[in-house]
Amino acid sequence: MVPERTVERLNQYCQLLADLAKSGTETIFSHELAELAGATPAQVRRDLMVIELAGQATRGYDVKRLQERLSEFLYTEGGDKVALVGVGNIGRALLPYFLTYRPGLRIVVSFDKNKEKKGRLLHGCLCRGMDELEKAIRNVGIRIAILAIPAEDAQEVAERLCNAGITGILNFAPRHLMLPDHVWVENIHMGVVLEKVAFMARESLREQEEAPA
Amino acid sequence: MVPERTVERLNQYCQLLADLAKSGTETIFSHELAELAGATPAQVRRDLMVIELAGQATRGYDVKRLQERLSEFLYTEGGDKVALVGVGNIGRALLPYFLTYRPGLRIVVSFDKNKEKKGRLLHGCLCRGMDELEKAIRNVGIRIAILAIPAEDAQEVAERLCNAGITGILNFAPRHLMLPDHVWVENIHMGVVLEKVAFMARESLREQEEAPA
DNA sequence: GCGTGTGAAATGCTTCACAGCG
DNA sequence: CGCTGTGAAGCATTTCACACGC
Prior knowledge:
Chain A has helices at residues 4-22, 30-37, 41-48, 63-74, 89-101, 133-140, 151-163, 190-210, and strands at residues 27-28, 61-62, 80-85, 105-112, 121-122, 125-129, 144-147, 168-171, 184-187. Chain A is an alpha/beta fold.
C-alpha cells in the first residue's frame, strides 16, 4: 500500500531528522529536507502524507515530532532483530555500521562456515557455526537476515533461512534467489550497479555532446 | 534513451550468459533467462529489443552471440578504469570481487587517508595517499570512482573527484552528494535498504493475514 | 504449437499547479 | 506573501495480447 520508494525515502528522512534533532534544529521546511535527501519539495510532502502529520505553512515541520512519528511508523516496538549470514568483508563492513548507527535494527547474531570464527565475538556480535543456523534463528525469533556469502551457496542457505522463519532477506550474493512469495528479498548486486554507473556516465556524456545548445 | 532498469538487467543477463557459455549451453529461451534473472519472459524480450539481435522461435537465442552483443553494447573497448576511494571493509569487499569477476571494469588504483596503507598492494591494487588523488586520476584517465569513506568526508572528496574528471560515482557513504549535473551518481545506502526490507517484510505479512482467502 | 517481437493498455511513481491558511 | 496538502497530469516501466514464422 505504501509505495516502495516512499518507504526508502521515509527511512532516509528519519535518519536525517535524527541528526538534525541532535544538532538542535527545531523546525524544517519541505524544501530543506528535500535538499538534504536529494529529492524535490513536492516529493517530500507527498511522502509525508502517509504518516498524517501536519506541517505549518509559516514554520514547516517540527523536527522532533516528525522524527518520532516516522520512527513509530517505520520501526517495531523495541526494534527488529537481524541475523548476519557470512562474516566476510561485506559482513564486517555492515556490523559496526548497524551496531552503532541504526535505531530500529539490531544484528544480534552472525553465522559463518569458517569454524575458526565460531564462538568469537565480532564487534560484540557472537558468531556461530552454520550448523546452528535454524536453531538459533528460531530460538531468538529473528525475522530478518543479511545474506553475504558466495553466490554458489546462496540459494541453499536462503532456503534454510526461510524454513527457519525468516521473512525478509537483504541479499548481497550475485544470484537471484528463488523463494516462497511471502519472503521479501532485496538484492544489492554491487557489480551490476557499478556497471550501470559506468554505462550511464558514458551515456549522459554522449547526450551532452550531441545536444550542446 | 535506454531505460535505467533495462541497463541493470542487461548487465545481469550478460553476466548470466557468460556463465552459461562456460557451462556449455548454446541456446536459451526468454523464459529460461527470465527465471535465472528473476524477471518475466516479456521483460527479457523487451530488454533485448535495444540491442537488436533476433532470436529464433524454435531455438531461442544463441548464448554466445547474445553475450558478445551485450558486451559490445555495455562495455567500452578495453574496459573502463575505476578508482576505489576508501579501503575500509567495504572497499576490501569490492576489490577481489571486481578484480576476478568483472570483465568490463578494472579497479586500477585505490586511495586511503590512512598513511600506513600508502604504497601497499591490496589484492594487487596499489593504494595511494589522498594527496595524490587528483594527479593520479588525471594521469591514468579514470572516469569512474567508488566512494567508500565515512559520511562526513564524502561531499568534500566527491567534489575533488569531479574536479579531477570523474563522471560516474558509486557512493556507499550515507549522504546525498551535491554535484554538477553531468556527474552520474548511484547511491547504495545499505542501512536504508535493510530498513526497507524489515518494513516490507512486516507489511507483506500483515497483508496476507488480513486477506487470507 | 510454441516462442519471438512489439503495439497498446496498465501500473507505479513523480511532478505540476493551485486552493487554503497563517 | 510563502509554504503545506493534494487532485490531476505527466513519465517511466511493466505487462498484456496477439501477429508472425519456424
